[in-house]
Amino acid sequence: MDITELAIALLLILFLLLGSGVWVALSLVGVAIVCIAFFTGRPIGASMYSTLWTSSTSWTLTALPLFIWMGEILYRTRLSESLFRGLSPWLSWLPGRLMHTNVIGCTLFAAVSGSSAATLTTVGKMSMPELKKRGYSDFMSVGTLAGASTLGLMIPPSLTMIVYGVITNQSIPKLFIAGILPGLILAALFMGYVVAWGILKKPNIVKEPAMTMKHRLYESRLLIPVALLIITVIGSMYSGLATATEAAALGVVGALLLAAIQRSLTFSSLVASLMGAAKTSCMIALILAGASFLTLAMGFTGLPRGLAEWVGSLDLSPFMLLVALMLVYIVLGCFLDGISAVVLTMAVVTPMLNAAGIDLLWFGIFVLVMVEMAQITPPVGFNLFVMKGLTNHSLGFIAKAAAPMFLIMAFMALLLIAFPGLATFLPGYMNEATM
């Protein structure tokens, strides 16, 4: 069987397992077992247990459950309410007015949670009722929330960045810092969309009461805790004072202090946050273990090398290669969640990128934009289902509302291709003592 037939056979087996409702991680393991059993002469048992153990005991992965726990703790605080009250006095003069709280609120919460689902749920529970009460469009509220909440994947700390860093052996602190500037630019593009909506549609919304500068500054005090937490987590890594794992530990301590100050930290909420973090961490670790086993199995067959050589024979320019990968990730996003798409493809994609001379650090930010797009791509866009749980709208309505945000993300991907320095500028100035 040649390389093309082998790739098609493995893809069919994978989609058969996924379509049957088998967990993503177990589907990856199943495909790996078939690959080794029928296409190589290697022992299955020895290959499987050594790979699963090695991938599950990586020291780099210790940052993952800590960042997830930090997000779980903050999800159970009154942080979203504080964000809304602190931001709203400063946004009433902009076209679109308080609709900007969705974007800015998601941007700030993304910087302390690392999860798009947690960002969407936390900010959405607070902003949706307030915006509806003031007469804002449901279409815009749903669309901006579904799109802006994906910034939880781009703005550090990002769980997907950690997964990508582990797979490609890239510095996680550098990946975190590389995502800051593109994340802020993407947030600005989202706000530009809201401004255009406010100017063109001239929505009939309740005008906010005038506030003195003193009152605005007083309300802004509510933003201090989240600002301090962001500075602690991101600043400690950028300065080289802490590794990603140490910064995650600092973030957990900060989140616990914030919850204690707000008196939202009870024994039941602490247990719930631990259980939520444990479940999510185990899910991601299992997917990573399955992907590592599949990567090893495909390596035995020579599939990644063969596909990389085939793509190389097409003599694609780096730009055309990136456009082709962009289309592949958009299609995969229709059927897989972001993390699964990353771990499934990197074994094949990495040799192609190396052959084309594309920086893997830069590509990590590029692929994160693709993963963000997958979060709002039907039929399995995860943010679409989370938003459906928050509202009474159909998935079709939510997907339509999020479509402009999808196009903005596609434009952001093209910006990254045109100006790669957007992702590589800040990491170049990092203190590498803890890299």
From TrEMBL:
Keyword Membrane: yes
Keywords, in A-Z order: Cell inner membrane, Cell membrane, Membrane, Transmembrane, Transmembrane helix, Transport
Signal peptide: none
Membrane topology label: Multi-pass membrane protein
Domain of life: Bacteria
Cellular component terms (Gene Ontology): plasma membrane
GO MF annotation, one: transmembrane transporter activity
Cellular compartments annotated: Cell inner membrane
Main location per the UniProt record: membrane
Transmembrane segments: 6-39, 51-70, 99-123, 135-155, 175-200, 221-241, 247-265, 277-300, 320-348, 360-381, 401-426
Residue ranges annotated for the TRAP C4-dicarboxylate transport system permease DctM subunit domain, each copy included: 12-421
Subunit note: The complex comprises the extracytoplasmic solute receptor protein and the two transmembrane proteins.
Protein role: Part of the tripartite ATP-independent periplasmic (TRAP) transport system.
Family stated for the protein in its record: Belongs to the TRAP transporter large permease family.
PANTHER family per UniProt: C4-DICARBOXYLATE TRAP TRANSPORTER LARGE PERMEASE PROTEIN DCTM, SIALIC ACID TRAP TRANSPORTER PERMEASE PROTEIN SIAT-RELATED
Entry protein name: TRAP transporter large permease protein
The species this protein was found in: Halomonas heilongjiangensis
Organism lineage: Bacteria, Pseudomonadati, Pseudomonadota, Gammaproteobacteria, Oceanospirillales
